[in-house]
Amino acid sequence: MEIAPFQTEQFFARYEFNTPWQLCNSDCETVSVAELLDLAGVPLGRLGRQRLSYSESRGATELREAIASGYRTVQPDEAVVLGAPVEGIYLLARALIEPGDEVVVLTPAYDALVNLFEHVAGTDRVRRWRLRPSGGTWTLDLDELRSLLTPATRLLVVNFPHNPTGYLPTPDWQRQLVALTEEFGLTLFADEMYFGLVHSGTPPIPSMADAHGSAVVLSGLSKTHGLPGLRCGWLVARDPDLRARLMNWKYYTSICAPVLTEYLAVAALKARDTLTRRNLERIERNLAVADAFFARWPDRFEWRRPVAGSTALVGFDVPSVAALSERLAREEGVLIQSAAMLGSDDRHMRIGLGRDGFAEALGRFEDWLQRQ
Ligand SMILES: Cc1ncc(COP(=O)(O)O)c(C=O)c1O
């Protein structure tokens, strides 16, 4: 059965490792293994003694304990460690969706959050709930969500902090969303890959794992902690039957996480506060650079400042960001991403604010703008 092209990953496969100035990465700045272990107070030498066996399929106990300690109400047995964060979306789609089920997904979105559900449920059974621009910010309308629900709706897929807009609900709005999913008996799947990246001035919200007794939550170390190379992710799933089905699918996809990943993930979770704080500081610095840049180019860009996460969705007054991005990558070594591939449109681009090279890359981009 066909599946839609994974446009974001195809784009990054073409350009991520050969384009020097990158403006659109969703992950935050990374660290070396030595620096990570140092931050966690774990001697580097111990890594060399790790045995390269299989690991426990649902995740090493020590890692699941460390994961659970990051939530208020989650028990170690309720976490399923993944082979990679993106795998969790596939496992959930496979384990949950039955023929005839309908799904509502937030859009724009990271491709997998839409395409995998369309693949499993059928394209005509996935409805899109749109984040809409409203003045200088983004909003989501609960009445619009209600209008998308039918008796067949089984699952609601959300992602907060949101990639790409940087939207985060208020605590009150989050409570209203939880109440609505309970009223309609929906399973709530919350992608929280950017959890903890809450910009100054924005009220934080609890994880959906703590706010909603039966939500399924995806999280991991790729974005907030800047460790995408670990490929460490997990699902929190309270329902033991659903967990058993997730595990059965996982035996077909990865069986268990790599032991070295689990070892380093335990260290990363010891250092999580430092890693998160440093990346938030980077994002705040880059946001100040972005504010100044967009203030200089008010006619070319529509800047809606994100309130959370490491990305922003920016209107760009060109006929096609996709066409321009190919040219800019080849001719200027500057990488921008069209938001069309995220379900927005080709006159918006995603920018990534979590990397140290952001200001320099934006400078290169501005040089090009000035030459036009
Ligand atoms: C919202 C969201 N969910 C899941 C993922 C997948 O994370 P990973 O690439 O680490 O598997 C991404 C990656 O960009 C993402 O943005």
Structure description:
The chain has two domains: 121 residues, Aspartate Aminotransferase, domain 1, CATH 3.90.1150.10; 223 residues, Type I PLP-dependent aspartate aminotransferase-like (Major domain) (Aspartate Aminotransferase, domain 2, 3-Layer(aba) Sandwich), CATH 3.40.640. It is 41% helix and 16% strand. With 372 residues, the protein is of the alpha/beta class. The protein has a seven-stranded mixed sheet, sandwiched between helices. It has a four-stranded antiparallel sheet with strand order 11-12-15-14. The structure holds pyridoxal-5'-phosphate.
Task: Note the main attributes of this structure.
Aspartate Aminotransferase, domain 2; 41% helix; 14 helices; seven-stranded mixed β-sheet; 372 residues; alpha/beta
